[in-house]
Amino acid sequence: MSDYDALTRWFRDAGSTLVAFSGGVDSTLLAKAAFDSLAGRSVAVTAVSASLAPRELDDARELAAKIGIAHRLETSSETTLPQYLVNDSNRCYHCKTE
To answer: What are 17-38's pLDDT values in tens digits?
Structure first.
């Protein structure tokens, strides 16, 4: 069994799934595997905020459409968090927890 087969089996066993979808390589692979496994019982969700470049959002939309997975957009407001605005080495942590 290939690694991809093991991944799709894992998704099938889950029964339904939501994939945090940035449109990057990792989340695109997961979205594709989720869709291949579950079709209509899988959803990709992209967090949209001032820190997301418009081109990256366009890319995420295009990739989700190519995969065929349902794609939802959720507003994120990490840029209003004082901890995020400090722009230190923990910036990504604050973004992801938002």
So the answer is: 999 999 999 999 999 999 999 9
Closest C-alpha to 78, from 53, 50, 59, 42: 50
CA pair distance 27, 4, nearest whole angstrom: 14
Got the DSSP string for the chain?
--HHHHHHHHHHHHSSEEEE--SSHHHHHHHHHHHHHHGGGEEEEEEESTTS-HHHHHHHHHHHHHHT-EEEEEE--GGG-HHHHT-STTHHHHHHH-
Report pLDDT digits (tens) over 54-69.
999 999 999 999 999 9
